[in-house]
Amino acid sequence: MDDPLIESTLKALKRNNFNAYFVQTAQEAGQLFFEQILPELEAKTFSWGDSMTMKATGILEVLEKDPEKILIRPFAPEYSQTQKIYWRKQALLCDLFLTGSNAVTQKGQLVNLDMIGNRIGGINFGPGNVVIFVGTNKIVPDLEAAMQRVRTIAAPRNAARHEGFRTPCIKTGSCMDCQSPDRICNSWLITEKSYPKGRISVVLINQELGL
């Protein structure tokens, strides 16, 4: 590995008790998942938190075709909002939770901001194991930079990609600490360390992925 920033971030993640991996592409991340990560886990039930990076790996499409795997689908478009909330709660009981991260600091911390909290809930507690896929474009120096990245990049762009959302940040490109009913900036999660050790795996992908 020739990039000292990526190398130091991987070392920091490992010091913080995360399993940390590095691949070049989203496709390689999917291969790593099925060839190395999944075989080490006794996982039969799966769910996920909304993540463009995770979806880019193609993992969900493969899992859906496996009759031995049970997918808890928290985002099915045909579900009513009541049904979606129910299945997002059930997702917290799965064996393996898949998602992304809004930012990763060079000190090996994960920083995430949620609207409802189902994604950060799954990262924090419930699922037996968590695998997080994140592009190297989300590596930042520290917590302050991570929160700045979320407020000026991740949150406004996430709000914009949800049809019908009306928040000031969609127009301004930055968090406005709004009172909108569509506000997505409601709950922060800073994950300093994985507990228990190795419960959370982080796959850094050497591409600009996600928001």
Can you give keywords for this protein?
alpha/beta; Rossmann fold; four-stranded mixed sheet; 36% helix; globular
Characterize the structure shown.
The chain is α/β, with parallel strands linked by helices. The protein has a domain at 4-108 and 117-139 and 193-205: 3-Layer(aba) Sandwich (Rossmann fold), CATH 3.40.50. The chain has 8 helices and 10 strands. The strands form 2 sheets. It has a 6-stranded parallel sheet with strand order 1-10-7-4-2-3, sandwiched between helices. The protein has a 4-stranded mixed sheet with strand order 8-5-6-9, sandwiched between helices. A hairpin with a 4-residue loop joins strand 5 (103-105) and strand 6. The protein is globular. The two termini are 25 Å apart. The model has no long low-confidence stretch (mean pLDDT 96).
Give the overall silhouette. Answer: globular
CATH architecture name of the domain at 4-108 and 117-139 and 193-205:
3-Layer(aba) Sandwich
Helix content: 25-40%
Order of SSEs, N→C? HEHEHHEHEEEHEEHHEE
- Gap from first CA to last CA: 25 Å
CATH topology of the domain at 4-108 and 117-139 and 193-205: Rossmann fold
Helix run count: 8
In short:
With 211 residues, the protein is of the alpha/beta class. 36% of the residues lie in helices and 21% in strands.
Summarize the helices and strands and which ones pair or pack.
Elements: H1 4-15, E1 19-23, H2 26-37, E2 45-48, H3 52-56, H4 59-64, E3 70-71, H5 81-90, E4 96-100, E5 103-105, E6 110-114, H6 118-124, E7 129-135, E8 139-140, H7 143-160, H8 168-172, E9 187-191, E10 200-205
Parallel strand pairs: 1-10, 2-3, 2-4, 4-7, 5-8, 7-10
Antiparallel strand pairs: 5-6, 6-9
